[in-house]
Design brief:
By secondary structure, the chain is an alpha/beta fold. The chain is built from 9 helices and 7 strands, in the order αααββαβαβααβαββα. It has helices at residues 4-18, 23-26, 31-34, 53-56, 73-83, 96-103, 110-118, 134-140, 177-183; strands spanning 37-39, 49-51, 61-66, 88-93, 125-128, 144-147, 162-165. Strands 5-4-3-6-7 form a 5-stranded parallel beta sheet. A two-stranded antiparallel sheet has the order 1-2. β3 (61-66), α5 and β4 (88-93) form a beta-alpha-beta unit.
Length: 186
């Protein structure tokens, strides 16, 4: 039988992915799961069901993001360290359009990059970015927003979230996708 924390994590993932748990999914939940939800009132916005505040308080949601085109040790380091800052890691994978603006060409489309990131042990939820970047922040209301050692923290509306920039005690240039790709002549 799953623990209450595991149940809350599952419900939170469904809630964030769908901007509320739709009626059709709510109907499939157990009585124990339904007791942790309220219709549209817990978050104050959106349709469907949301975690009650007492259930949401059981989570320390950590949010981070990136392109994740060529997965390497720097990505694993970032995700592992980010996961240590809470008990729910939400990763936003850049859309193809956004990634091309920042990186130029891509090796892999969003669906591939999402599949890889979702399969990593520290990740509880991974989603592709949305046209309005702030929407996922509004849905998740993270407690911590993490920027990788090679990312520039951008000014974002994070509510009361703590912003953390990870530091790497090794030479950061070695663990960059661009360095790996250029060494291959791509």
């Amino acid at each position: 039988m799953p623990s209450e924390l595991e149940i809350v994590k599952k419900l939170f993932a469904i809630q964030v992915a769908g901007n509320g748990i739709p009626e059709k999914d709510y109907a499939l939940l157990t009585e124990q799961e339904r007791k942790l939800l309220a219709r549209g009132t817990a978050s104050g916005e959106g349709a469907g069901y949301f975690l009650l505040p007492a259930a949401r308080k059981k989570l320390t949601v950590v949010m981070t993001g990136g392109v994740f085109d060529l997965l390497h040790a720097g990505h694993v380091f970032t995700l592992t360290e980010a996961a240590k800052l809470g008990n729910f890691l939400f990763v936003v994978v850049a859309t193809d359009e956004t990634a091309k603006k920042s990186k130029g060409k891509l090796l892999h489309p969003l669906e591939y990059r999402l599949y890889v990131v979702k399969s990593l042990k520290p990740v509880d939820l991974a989603m592709g970015g949305l046209a309005r970047k702030e929407e996922l922040l509004e849905r998740a209301k993270p407690d911590v927003v993490v920027f990788g050692y090679d990312q520039n923290p951008k000014i974002v509306q994070t509510g009361n979230a703590k912003i953390v920039k990870l530091e790497l005690d090794k030479a950061p240039g070695i663990l960059k996708s661009s360095k790996i790709i250029s060494s291959l002549g791509y």
